[in-house]
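User: Structure please.
Assistant: Input sequence and predicted structure:
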Amino acid sequence: MSYEPPRPVRGLLLTPEDKEAPARVHRLRRLGLADRPDPVLDTFAGHLAQLTGAPYAMVNFIGEDHQFFAGLSAPATAPVVRDDGSRARIGRVLPRDHGFCPHVVVRHKALVLEDVRDYPRFAGNPVVDEYGIRSYLGAPLIDSSGMALGTVCAADTAPRAWGRPGLETIKALAAELVVRLERGTGDGLPI
């Protein structure tokens, strides 16, 4: 008896193709938002974490091969204990194929996942096993040109019924934040 690795599911693209990525990276650089932490955006993420009660909240900009959390509110380490007894450290950079934000950016639409394990496309995502993410709420940061620069999102380690109020909140926060990002001011944040 021999073992053959499972074949990829035909038509199931785990990380969507992102044709806007080069233009987005250029736009983020012009706005001064490329790959640097921002204390104002950290404050915004902290406010979002408080509003949602989620342990993770981010302002995430998506590049060509990675994601960067310019605003981050998260525990220092993931709650998941690995086989060797260690835990993943929470950083500001993730590969593009980790998490759910790349789907939000490509679709230009908010995404609500009450339990990521209910969706075959998302259940096998590395953040599920590595960081213990079980639910996600995210909305795109769509600028005045119609480009999705990134996301505002919250994630939890337990399934959550975010509901319409959660969806409306995240969409309103994303719309308000993108206006301030284009103006180049963080005054008044958190909202």
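The CA atoms of residues 33 and 70 lie 8 Å apart.
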